[in-house]
């Protein structure tokens, strides 16, 4: 059974009034999950900490973007339909509370938003949020590349393109990968990411029996050695997301319509 993926949304309307610039070529796409590509998703990372003496459980919630570049709709259609609004609303919402954090994943949409949609105020706020550590770029490539069909040259190209933009624009370099949606994980990707300087790698969609075995034996975290010939230079700490993947556990009232959620937002 396929892990559930939140999503939904409406078909993008063609045409629009805002010029968004020429779309860049994406080297791959993140996966083909039904409904996976629409809009902003919220991630609940429940890092189950030992219960405190009062019996409370500490949970850390980090919202993240998940907008598969080129899945179903063109980049321009996606920008007009939802992607531009995601970053506008994210920045505005982050500014409403110091406890709010967000990780941005797909560089393609952010870059188009930055170049043609963001106001000067938005740009100043992005710089501030980055400085405060409340906005973070993960992966930092133009896309979350597919691991089955994308050639290594294209993987490197799209990563270089995205990282170049981040460094030139903000002077930053992403520290962590976030490969939650490729359908299957190849050894090439962690090798490339280790060589690219990432501190840790995160995956989710792997063989179901393998994940069940890793869950049972508490092996969801491991050091991935993807290329024996490259030895230690390509080792990377890897975390495999647990049963909910990057989705919200269904038993939690986690939506912006929920009164329970508003208490913690
Ligand atoms: Zn996806």
UniProtKB/TrEMBL annotation:
Residues 59-263 form the Glycoside hydrolase family 38 N-terminal domain. Gene3D superfamilies: Glycoside hydrolase 38, N terminal domain. One of its GO terms (cellular component) is lysosome. One of its GO terms (biological process) is mannose metabolic process. It holds the Pfam family Glyco_hydro_38N. GO terms for molecular function: alpha-mannosidase activity. InterPro entries: Glyco_hydro/deAcase_b/a-brl, Glyco_hydro_38_N, Glyco_hydro_38_N_sf, Glycosyl_Hydrlase_38. SUPFAM superfamilies: Glycoside hydrolase/deacetylase. It comes from the Eukaryota. Residues 1-24 are annotated as: Disordered. This is Glycoside hydrolase family 38 N-terminal domain-containing protein. It comes from Meleagris gallopavo (Wild turkey).
